[in-house]
Amino acid sequence: MKRIFCILLxxxxxxxxxxxxxxxxxxxxxxxxxxxxxxxxxxxxEVKDNFKLPFDVxxxxxxxxxxxxxxxxxxxxxxxxxxxxxxxxxDGSIEPVMDHLIMKEGRxxxxxxxxxxxxTESMSFPNGSIITPDGYYTRPGGLRVRLLDGxxxxxxxxxLQSMDAATxxxxxxxxxxxxxxxxxxxxxxxxxxxxxxxxxxxxxxKHDGSTxxxxxxxxxxxxxxxxxx
Length: 229
Known about the structure:
By secondary structure, this protein is mainly beta. Helices cover 9% and strands 45% of the residues. The radius of gyration is 20 Å and the shape is globular.
C-alpha cells in the first residue's frame, strides 16, 4: 500500500511538472544574459534584425524598444515585452506597454515612455472626461466618481482593462493586484477578480476549475476588476 501511495505521488508530481513546462511563454520579446530573443509560439529565437510587435512596438537589436515615435527604452534582463500590450518584469511587476494613467496608492500617475510622474493638475480628454490629481474621474456625462487603485486609462481618456499577475520567484509567489506588489504567504490563497484562486505554493485554480502550477520565473496575467465606465 505504501509503495502504491509513493508511486501515485510520483505520477502526480510528474503531471504537475509537465503541465508547468507545457505552458508557453507569451509571444513578444525578451532579454536573457544580454541576448535579445523574439518569442514565437513559446519558443525563443535569437534576434538578428529589428522587428515589430502589436501596439506600434518596434524592438531593436541593441536590446531596446520604443512605441511609435516615443523614446527608446531598454529591455532589462528577464523582462518580457508581450505581444498583448503588457510588460512583465522578474520582480513580478507588470505594466501596459503604452503610455497611460494609473491610480496607485491613492494617487494618479502619468506614465510616458515607461517613466511615471504624479499628476499635478487636472487632465481633460477629447471624450469629455476629466481626471484630477486627487483621484477623481468625471465621466463624459458629468458623473464624478472616486478612482480605485489599479484603475487604468489610455492617454485619450478611454478606459484600459487592468490586469493582475502571479509570478513564482525563488519558490515564492509574488502577486501584483490593483497596481501593487504583494508577496503571498506559502499557506495562503488569494482570490482574484475573475474567480481564479492563487495558492502560495504556486498552484493556480482557474474559474473553470482547471488547475496548474507555476514554473519558476513564470508570470501569468489575470483579468483585473471590470469597472462600470
